[in-house]
Amino acid sequence: MTIQIIQNVKNSTLFSRTHKATVKNYKHKGIPVMLQQTVALMTLILISPLFLLVLCLIKIESSGSALFSQTRVGENGRHFKMYKFRSMYVKSDLKYKEPDPSQSSREGVCKKYINDPRITKFGQFIRKYSIDEIPQLFNIVRGDMCLVGPRPALSIETYEYDRFIQPRLFTKPGLTGLWQISGRADTNFEQQLRLDKTYIKQQSFFMDCKIIALTIPAVLTAKGAY
Known about the structure:
The chain is mainly alpha-helical. It has one domain. 44% of the residues lie in helices and 9% in strands. The chain has eight helices and four strands. The chain has a two-stranded antiparallel sheet. Strands 3-4 form a two-stranded parallel sheet. Strand 3 (146-148), helix 6 (155-158) and strand 4 (174-176) form a beta-alpha-beta unit. It is globular. The two termini are 32 Å apart.
């Protein structure tokens, strides 16, 4: 525990130094944020019947709230609540079963399981086609996220960042991004970081549009989704 605390302090200091040196040079070059917020709001209104249907189906299958929130690290290291449709059993449910960490199907700090015993049957479906991510449109409207950008990181992930990866935290996280169209869960932690860093360096209006367009077939084919 002591070692972890020391490591957290070191990472916090590193972020602070890198932030001062780099954040002044960062400028959003993708689709204007206000336009993205408008699109997200209009999409939420249009799909509201689907939104309500998913909420009902989740509640019918298992107990607990149909919406799930989790603290993530956003722009400039700011923490926020990211929303999803709940795709797992709650811990109080008799069907809940904790997975074995040693059986993770993905290398790196972020554990991922192809056959995760915590996931409900309907949860498998909405995760496969990224329907569980729809509530993040609220995060976009609120200004926590963008349509395109690095995925919002867990705090534990940021402890693994070195000074070359810290710039990943200078931009708003996104609903989709380069690693979502490059294999999704089939990419490991290091590959995700490299793809996000590439996006930050090459960000442009055209690149954002291209990623959004390529996200559609990536979701429909469900490659790397579990």
